[in-house]
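Example 596, ligand adenosine-5'-triphosphate.
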Amino acid sequence: MRQHKKKFYFEKDDYHLEGSLLDLTKGLLKFLSPYKRSFLFALILIFLSSLLAMISARIMGLLVDEGLSQKDFGTSMKWGLVILILEALSLLGLWRGRYSLVKASSNSLLDIRKNVFKDLQFISMSYFDKQPEGRTVTRMTHDIESLEDFFSGSLGRLLNALILFIVSIFAMLLTNLNLGLTLLAGLIPVFILTYFSRTKVRFLNHQISRYNSALNAKLSEYLRGVMTLRIFGWENWSLNHYGKAIEKHKQSFLRANIFYAWNRPLTNFLCTLPIILLFWFGGLKVLNGALELGLFVAFIRYCERFTTPLANVTREIQQIQQSLTSGERILSFLNAKKERETLGEDGHSEPAPKGGISFQNVSMYYTLDQWILKDLNFTIRPGEKIGLVGKTGSGKTTTLNLLGRLYPFQKGTISIWGHDIKSFKRSHLRKNIGFVSQKALFFKGTIKENIFLEVTEFDSKKEIALKQLGLYQWLKEKGLTLDSPILENGSNLSEGEKQFLSISRVLIQNPALLILDEATAHIDIKNEEKIQMALDLIMENKTCLIVAHRLHTLRNCDRIFVFKDGGLIEEGNHEELINKKGEFYHLSHETLKFKG
Ligand code: ATP
Ligand code: MG
């Protein structure tokens, strides 16, 4: 059962993308709303520019009727000049309108970029467990760039075409209802084609985006695992998998292009249908004397005015669709569950970090119904040093993660410093907990930046602890200073060195509660003792929770909790547990046997 469920643990890409175009428009409009005045201004200008273009088209008819066909040079010149001025004003209006549009949309895009990154800080941890890293990166890079293309170019052209289209239809219907309706009828096939193609186009674009993001996910996974791949000689294996991902991406691209290869020319052709109809019916009417030549010319201009932008838009419809798909993916990322949805609204309590910790009947799962912690009960008194031991996968890290409110728990109560953990302001709780996790993580920068972070206060106690820890000694021995660089992920440091620096980092933060999860597993015995002394100094009278597989390191702990299958099965100090000859005794025995 468990295996079966695990298969579905990773969420499929595009899982949430079921919204309509209306939802997407609404979602994107939310970002445009702070700049609605600029948008409105832009729309009005584009509208006025289209109106001027239509008037100019109508005057072209007058130029023919009153000027050219009457061989009246003066009138021809007069209308010619008016047309020139109208065209110039229309161009100016269009330029100014597009400028405002691009400016407003660039600002909205900046907001989207900021929001995407801001949301990253609030999205629940389980999202990151279920989504490959590359997929999130693709949303934050490729999808945003694609949306940027849309906002900075296609949106302006699309609105321009739409407004021109509406204005010219009105102009045609007002000028000559019959001919106007005939031309409108000529547009029906292109609308039918667009309507029936839309589902296919959407499907093809989703497929391209999905395979593109899968490709990036694979790339980032293999880049991170390059060492493992090389050591195991799995280069061909990774090449094979990457090749398959490329193939899927290529196929989706090919499928889309084959579709567009016939769809686009056909759409282009259907866009010219109104002009063909105009020449056919309009031409006949002119020959029969039922239509003035000037009106016929004006109609040709109207038609041109909307068919050219319409054809331009249909030419870039693939790009527009791609951007809209990206928009959907970004919105789905922005809609991902935030901590406030998985953990509940942030609390208001900001108590002083004094008092103990208690877990009462706590049960939790990551994936529905696969209980990881089962009815966990314990109490920790203020200032106690607690060791946590247990076989791999027994739930130690999970228990500690609950203290930092990184994941929700489904049953029971956790109290800390006299308050229910759910009532805490989460940032306050986390600020007071120093967490040295199993995986020490560093950012590109200097040693100082990485261990001091935002800490500005630096008292003598911290200075002494750092000396005791041996940080300065270590730096001196390595010929380093606090300004020496650390590469991304701390790749120029050994695992032990990383742990050493991450313990220095947490000591400087001086937390009220210290959590060490296998924090010294990679450090040699001599340095481990030094660290122990430094911790004793800085954590005097403060609570510590220490997970260790090297059980002798827990000798000085006040009590040790022994975990098994998500529950607590033994507790007591080192001596008591050894004498009890239970699980702890067997664990330490196994460790000794293994060492021996
Ligand atoms: P170790 O000594 O190896 O660090 P642990 O006692 O810390 O083990 P946990 O990390 O708490 O074990 O994991 C307990 C169980 O929960 C394991 O079966 C693991 O597969 C599962 N688990 C841990 N983290 C997650 C997660 N983010 N999503 C889903 N399942 C998880
Ligand atoms: Mg663990």
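Summary: Residues 129, 366-367, 372, 390, 392-398, 438 surround adenosine-5'-triphosphate (ligand 1) (CB under 6 Å).
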